[in-house]
Write a structure and sequence with these properties.
Number of helices: 9
Helix content: 25-40%
CATH superfamily of the largest domain: FAD/NAD(P)-binding domain
Distance between the termini: 38 Å
CATH class of the largest domain: Alpha Beta
CATH architecture of the largest domain: 3-Layer(bba) Sandwich
Number of strands: 20
Number of domains: 2
Order of helices and strands: EHEEHEEHEHEEHEEEEHEEEEEHEEEHH
Radius of gyration: 21 Å
CATH topology of the largest domain: FAD/NAD(P)-binding domain
């Protein structure tokens, strides 16, 4: 340990940590600590990589819409479109979807069977209606992640890998941080961007956990016959039973599972793989020529399913930047800008002016924590 006291030590160098480090670094000294050999090994490196205006629900829409122009301007988006498929018996779900997103600023439209067939060949006949999101786009996740890591370094931020935090000690001048590899650092403030490990990091710091829970999501890569069209939209079940999209001549398919899990290097379960394939075969008449890859990632949610951005109520030097579910990548620009503005005491700018930070503040859990 040298005598330096960093203004901020960001724990976790996935998309969350990298993005907020990049936003903080022009204004303060930033240390970014990553437990793994390389940043982005867990959720960031396993993302299905799409920007969907409706994903995450109405509470996430402001962050998604505010992030879109930044992602587009920097070349991280490729427009694909999305279809939420429905059968006749799903009419109530279709109407509920429209009612949920009415007035949120998203662009959605109804499609009939003929319009669906123009976009998705080979669908079984019972899929007769859909909601179309024309703005949905693929995200170049790796490029976006590297963009933020490079921006943090360019402004003097330091990234340290193989630095799993083992101890956090609160002292008068700030925090003493000890890693499992024997590294020791000091920082005035902690930013908890540890994803699935967010509550564990809080516990190390003597901070009450917020109930941020990781859930497993499974994805498989298929080779199908006929091959997946390159312009195929992201295709989702209106009831959340599956989604699939093309990628590099193959098809990525998920059963849209959400299984409670523990923080760690999660792996797919054979049952979830089988469920994904069964649902796909009930949706299209495409032949599965090969199951080429399978993987799983963790998506971490707070109890109310909204992200948590802001200082802890018990200790303002401990800053939460976690609980970003599966929407943390598509909302990264606005979330990181908003988080840095809160942490630095800055006002909103053009990107964040329409976002209410109180919606995502840890203070919303105060009543639950006091009664626990």
């Amino acid at each position: 340990m040298n005598g330096k006291i960093w203004d901020f030590a960001v724990i976790g160098a996935g998309m969350a940590g990298a993005s907020i480090a990049a936003e903080l670094a022009p204004h303060a000294s930033v240390l970014l600590l990553e437990a793994e050999d390389t940043p982005g090994y867990h959720a960031t490196g396993r993302s299905a990589a799409f920007w969907d205006e409706c994903y995450g629900g109405p509470g996430v829409v402001p962050l998604t819409l505010a992030s879109g122009p930044y992602l587009q301007a920097h070349g991280f988006l490729t427009t694909r479109g999305a279809l939420h498929l429905a059968r006749a018996e799903d009419s109530a779900a279709l109407e509920d979807f429209f009612a949920t997103f009415a007035g949120t600023g998203v662009t959605i439209e109804r499609l009939d069977r003929a319009a669906i067939e123009q976009r998705v060949p080979g669908l079984r006949p019972e899929w007769c209606a859909a909601i179309h999101e024309p703005a949905c786009a693929d995200i170049d996740v790796a490029a976006l992640h590297q963009h933020y890591l490079a921006a943090a370094r360019r402004e003097g931020g330091e990234v340290v890998c193989r630095a799993r935090v083992e101890r956090l000690e609160r002292r008068a001048e700030g925090w003493r941080i000890v890693t499992a590899a024997g590294g020791e650092y000091r920082a005035a403030r902690i930013v908890n961007a540890a994803g699935a490990w967010a509550d564990s990091v809080a516990t190390l710091a003597g901070i009450a956990p917020l109930g941020i829970r990781p859930y497993r999501r499974t994805v498989v890569q298929l080779r199908v016959d006929p091959p997946a069209p390159t312009d195929l939209p992201l295709v989702l079940d209106i009831n959340g039973g599956f989604y699939f999209k093309p990628d590099g001549g193959r098809l990525w398919l998920s059963p849209h599972d959400e299984t409670p899990d523990e923080p760690g290097d999660t792996a797919p379960e054979e049952l979830d793989v089988a469920i994904a394939i069964d649902r796909f075969e009930q949706t299209t008449d495409w032949r599965i020529a090969a199951l080429e890859r399978r993987w799983a990632g963790l998506r971490s949610f707070a109890p109310d399913r909204l992200p948590v951005y802001g200082p802890d109520l018990a200790d303002s030097s401990f800053f939460w930047f976690a609980g970003q579910g599966g929407f943390g990548i598509q909302t990264a620009p606005a979330a990181a800008r908003l988080g840095s503005q809160i942490a630095l005491g800055l006002g909103p700018d053009a990107m964040t002016r329409g976002i209410d930070p109180a919606v995502y503040a840890p203070a919303r859990f105060a009543t639950a924590l006091q009664s626990a």
